Structures are given as C-alpha cells and as structure tokens.
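Me: I'm a chemist; would you kindly supply a protein sequence with its structure tokens?

Assistant:
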Amino acid sequence: MDSTLRAGYAKEPLLRSVGFSPRTSRFETWAKAHVTFIPGITMPRHSTPFALAATILCSLATVTFAVESGPKVTGFEPAATDWPWWRGPSNNGIAAANQNPPITWSETENVIWKTPIAGRGHSSATVVGDQVFVTTAEEDKELLAVISLDRKTGQVRWRTDVHKGGMDKKGNKKTSQASSTVACDGKHLYVNFLNHGSVMTTALDLQGKQVWQTKVAPFATHQGFGSSPALFGSLVYVTADSKSGGAVAALSRDKGEIVWQQLRPEKANYASPIVLRVAGKDQLLVSGCDLASGFHPLTGDKFWEIEGATTECVTTMVTDGERVFVSGGYPRKHVQAIAADGSGKTAWQNNVQVYVPSMIAHDGFLYATQDGGVASCWKSDTGEEMWKERLGGTFSGSLTLVVDKLYTTNENGTTFVFRANPKQFEKLGENKIAGEAFATPTICGSQVFLRVAEIKDGARQEMVYCLGKK
C-alpha cells in the first residue's frame, strides 16, 4: 500500500465523523458538498477515493467542513471601515453596522473633501485602508486608468494608465468606458476594461504597478461594457457577455491564469458576477442572456440554470438565503424570485422595470429603485407589494443600506435617504449636488463616497466627494 493510501486509512475515523465512507461510490458528491466550498481548495484528481480523501486531509492541518459565515477571500478580511469591491464587503450592498454617515449634505455642507478627476467614469469608489480607488477614461487621449486618492485628504496618490489606445467608443449616450468598479484584496487591485475589442482584466499592486493582465474574451459592443470583478477564495471572477459570445471566467488572483470558464450565449448583457451564500452553499451567480445561473465558485460546475431573467440585465443578484432575485429591462421588464436549491422553481415575479439599479434584500423584504424613479418594497418570499413611492428622476446607481437607512442617487445628482421599513415609505433626506451621477454611493467608516460630474458654465468636471460629519 502506498503512503497516500496508508494516510487515507489512518484518517478514516475522521472521514466517518463528517459523514463519509471511502467505500461508497458517492464520494465525489460528498466531497463537493463538504470540501470544495472551502475557499482556495481545489479537488485533487486521484484514482481512488482513499487517495483523494488522504490528500484533502493531509493538506489541511485543521478544516471546518461547513462554512457558515458566507463568502470569504483567502488572505483578506475587510476592516469595518473598508468597502473593498462592487456591492461592498458582504457582496449584497449592505454596509457595516455601527456607523453613522450623514443623511444631509450639499456642495458645501458635510463635505470632508472633494477631488476633481480627469476624464469620465461611472465606477463607484472602492475604499481599503487609507486609499480610495476609482477608474476613469479620457476619450480624447484614449487612456483607461485607475486612480488612488488619499482617504483623509482626497489628494491623488498615484495614477496608472492601464491601457493606452484601442479604446472602444461605441455604446449608448449614457455609457462610459470606465464603468467597472475596482476590487481589492488588500494586496492587489483588480479591474476590467474593454480594450482592442476584448474584455481585459488587470491586477495592480497598491502602489499602482501592474502585476498581470489577462484577455478574458472578445466583446462586441452593443450599449457598452460595465461588469465589475468579484472575488472569492483565491479567484477573481469576470463576465464578458456580448453578441459575439462570451464567458464567465475564474482567474487566479496571483497570476491571472484562467482556472475555469463557462461559455455564454451570443447575446448582449451587462450584469456583474457575485458570490453569495444561498440554499446552504456558496454560489457564483450570474443573470442575463435569457438565463439565471448558479455555479460552483471553485470548479465552474453548474449547480442549476434556468431559462429565466431576460436577455439584457444590468443588476447584480441578491438573496434572502433561500431565493435569489434577478431583474432586467430588455426585452422583458421584470423582477423574479428563483429558488436556488437546484429546483429552478420561480417563487414569484412581476413586470416592474428594475433594469439598472441593483436591489437590497433585508430582513425578509426586497427593496428596489426602479429606473423610472419609483422606490418599491416587496415581501421576499411571496412578492407581495408592501408599498411604492415616487422619488423623481431617472436612476442608474444602486441602493446601499446602512443599518436601517437606504441611500440611492439619481442621474441628476440627487441622493435620497429613506428607511428600510416594510410598513411604510419614510423619507429621511434629499440632497442634491448639481450635475450628473451614475455611480452608486459607497458608505464605510461613517463616510459617503459619491462620484458626481459637476456641470458649471457648460463645462463638465468629474468629482469624487467624501461626505461626513465634521
């Protein structure tokens, strides 16, 4: 008997204690359910169940077989004052508790600092440690860049031009060439840009030096590109959906190598991938292309996939732990609740247009801001409408929740603050900074980071605001 098999026999009592008998043909099912959800663990390929079990057990000094705390990024634990990627530290648009950001401001009131940014971009601010990261595109110079601002002062610490030339200037009038929000794992930054007809993912260190760059997939522009990267375990996830075909891909964070990919239909779509814990396991969720899909985040295997959602989606999925919620705007306007246990059952759906702004699931209720300026609240299990209220304006930015307060900004730069209260709509604040706003408010450390394009005397100037109580 070789040493690996001997190790397997030696560990058999431990295997049995977590529900596995090596003498069963169902080992692969057991292993996927109990082991591969651990971030950073890749299933070995051995010829026998004992050898496979031994490799797993011997490679881990200690292991927790049921990860209940939600999606984790290997080697990084966000601070309570961080907002490290799109949709925030919990991947759901919900900010850390125990903070008290302002609910009123103006161009001068409660402004800690504001910094002008060259070019144009719709990405939200990413905040890790003492740095704030945003992307921008200077179309006249064909530059696609990442900028680091000092969190205390707003001064530019560094700028890296990730791409020079090869800019895709197609798309609708609202789009920008820098709509992807940066993801940060405390060591590297990860960002997506469309360049030379392909979606490119780039890793930078915290000083702005390029670490690697990977071509994910060709991309045929319809209305634009804006998918943000997601992190889980040791991987970074990217979606590149377009009419030329595309892929959802997992890249290694350290080298940018493609670990797995799933090809996608030849259809235009704009949704970002997200990893959420739903139906008892971590799932990589992607909507659009007339599909709603849940993937094993480490292997790319499909847990489930249904003909659902619609062709073009922008919103990122959210969950109440049992159902995932998708929404889209073309050709069908809808909000849809899907059981994520593999059954493919639709719990409920309606014909409300929540095309661009992502929703919030909280305490058994689903909150949304419709593109047309109406806020809504539904019961997450039944879809029963609790209330709806017209805010005004057109919305592209998503909802952000802090404790029991929801923040959302319309395209005219007005931010509404209202209570996450299913019983009634309760407005707490309405604050305007004149100009344009397409980014989502980032809220961490009792501060609001807001990206607005001020327009004065016909001149357009992008600004990043840090708002807080002085």
Q: What stands out?
A: The mean pLDDT is 85. The radius of gyration is 22 Å. The longest strand covers residues 447-456.
